[in-house]
Design brief:
The chain is an alpha+beta fold. It has ten helices and twelve strands. Among the domains are: about 80 residues, Helix Hairpins, CATH 1.10.287; about 130 residues, Histidine kinase-like ATPase, C-terminal domain (Heat Shock Protein 90), CATH 3.30.565.
């Protein structure tokens, strides 16, 4: 019962709103009608009293003609010239103040109004005069009241209906875009959200942001997929090396051969451990407390020999680091960043040079390759994704742009102020 009072759907809210405003309209109409009706009743009673008092001169002249204690001056007005002639119901209320209108139960059927005064008759004698009239003798009339009530009731129904219709039209105009958006959210998973151009500005802004969030969600989903592929690739390679070296160890008993395979296993395991640590830092954001910790970086921790081993013929690797350089990047993270940036530079550089420069606020890798020709995410693959994620975790900004002449430069800039 009264389920719509508790529902939260647009239909329930509309029903509840229409009910509330209908109640307000009904109450407002009653509050307007009640004082108006009360005013009519009070004004009518005053008119009856004034009508009764107007018979004073007539009653005086009439007494001179009939010389009687009672006279009916009109179908509703009676005149009494002696207290003894008054009806018992009036005698019970005596005495009456002279020249004052007295009302007795003026709104009941047995109520009456009395006007007491006096005059000097033809013999010079002071004669009392009591004019009486029934309280409801000349009321507005039942027919008149019925017409008034019907008109008022019809006006009330019209106002409520008009208000309800107007409110419903206004509510539908406001809520139809919301219902449309709700329907699109439930069913149109691949399409962009849209509302009518006549919708209010806030709804159009909301629709715009929903589309932006949808695009961002799709972009993040693609990045997460690329991140998973990158993690899989980075872990599969050392695992394959470890398995291969372990299998080869069982083929020969040569100590030199065995030592070589163990070395391969240790290097691959070390690289895999570093990769896992970096990936865990990104996923779990365990590096939050380390982002402000500075450490001195030396040239010895940069694997320059590994980078040079991958260079194509005709390509030279240059490296420069400012003295006493301090960074907030742990060694595995710095190694992962340089590995991805240098590998991308090697991939697109067939001749010329690749330059690595590191100082307290900047890490840059510049090459003389083919530069950027399209989307950096598709050109440079998964490596840039891991670089972006690491930069976000440690408070660095990342930028990749083409050089004026040839090649491109990948630049990492420190955005925070480590303590």
């Amino acid at each position: 019962m009264f389920k719509f009072f508790h529902g939260n759907t647009i239909k329930d809210v509309k029903t509840r709103l229409l009910f509330i405003f209908s109640s307000i309209a009904l109450t407002s109409t009653f509050l307007a009608f009640f004082p108006f009706s009360l005013y009519l009743v009070i004004n009518e009673d005053n008119q009856v009293a004034q009508h009764l008092a107007s018979f004073e001169q007539i009653a005086t002249e009439h007494y001179a003609l009939i010389q009687n204690d009672f006279a009916q001056l009109s179908p509703h007005v009676n005149a009494y010239y002696n207290e003894a002639a008054l009806p018992d119901r009036i005698k019970q209320l005596m005495p009456f103040t002279e020249n004052v209108i007295t009302r007795h139960r003026p709104y009941d059927e047995d109520g009456f109004i009395i006007f007491h005064t006096s005059f000097i008759d033809l013999q010079g004698k002071k004669t009392p005069l009591y004019l009486t009239i029934d309280a409801l003798a000349i009321e507005f009339g039942d027919d008149g009241w019925y017409v008034l009530m019907l008109i008022s009731f019809a006006l009330m129904i019209f106002l409520i209906t008009f208000l309800r219709f107007s409110l419903q039209r206004m509510f539908d105009g406001l809520m139809s875009p919301v219902m449309e958006l709700s329907h699109q959210l439930q069913h149109n998973h691949n399409d962009e959200f849209s509302v009518s151009e006549r919708s209010i500005d806030e709804l159009q802004t909301l629709t715009k942001h929903l589309n932006e969030y949808k695009q961002m969600k799709e972009r993040l989903a693609r990045q997460e997929l690329m991140f998973a592929k990158y993690a899989s690739h980075e872990l599969k390679t050392p695992i394959a090396i470890v398995l291969g070296a372990a299998n080869l160890q069982g083929m020969k008993d040569d100590p030199v051969f065995q030592a070589k395979q163990r070395e391969r296993i240790l290097v691959a395991a070390t690289n895999m451990h570093a990769t896992v640590e970096v990936l865990l830092n990104i996923v779990k954001q365990e590096n939050a407390s380390e982002a402000g910790t500075m450490r001195v970086v030396s040239e010895n921790e940069i694997p320059l020999d590994k980078f040079r081993a991958k260079l194509k013929d005709g390509v030279k690797l240059n490296f420069a680091i400012d003295p006493e350089t301090q960074l907030n990047l742990p060694e595995p993270v710095l190694a992962m960043l340089l590995k991805n940036l240098v590998n991308n530079a090697i991939r697109f550089t067939r001749q010329g040079h690749i330059t690595i420069h590191i100082d307290n606020h900047t890490i840059s890798v510049t090459d003389t390759g083919c530069g950027l020709t399209g989307s950096t995410e598709t050109e440079h693959g998964l490596g840039l994704l891991i670089v972006k994620r690491l930069c976000q975790s440690y408070g660095w900004g990342f930028e990749l742009k083409s050089n004026p002449k040839q090649g491109c430069t990948a630049t990492l800039r420190l955005l925070i102020n480590p303590s």
